[in-house]
Every structure is written in structure tokens, then in C-alpha cells.
Design goal:
The chain has 59 residues and is mainly β. It contains no helices and five strands. The N and C termini lie far apart (30 Å).
Length: 59
């Protein structure tokens, strides 16, 4: 697990998430600042993060 920092697509604050490099996945996690749901997409190759996207969930 390693910590990755990015900007929340709702409140624009810098937040962090712990990412598991053994899995490339899509999931939803709430922002630790504003509590809005963020769709997170991660792509790993050989335990290296090669793709990261944090998008708002249009509700």
C-alpha cells in the first residue's frame, strides 16, 4: 500500500488515498474533506502506478 495525493473533483482540496499496487481497479470512495463520492480508477504495472483518475459521480 502506498499513499497517493490528488485534488478532489468537488471541493478542489488536496486529499490522499491508500492504493494497493497489487490490483488495478475502479471503485468509489468518499472525499475525506467534503464527503462527496469520488470514482477512482487505478492502473498498475509491475507494482508501479501508471494510471490514476479521480472523477465526480454525476448525481
Amino acid at each position: 500500500m502506498f499513499e497517493h495525493f490528488f485534488q478532489c473533483p468537488y471541493c478542489w482540496e488536496e486529499v490522499s488515498m491508500l492504493l494497493d499496487p497489487s490490483v488495478s481497479t475502479v471503485y468509489v470512495e468518499d472525499c475525506e474533506v467534503c464527503c462527496n463520492p469520488i470514482e477512482v480508477r487505478t492502473t498498475f504495472e509491475e507494482q508501479e502506478l501508471v494510471g490514476f483518475e479521480a472523477r465526480d459521480i454525476e448525481q
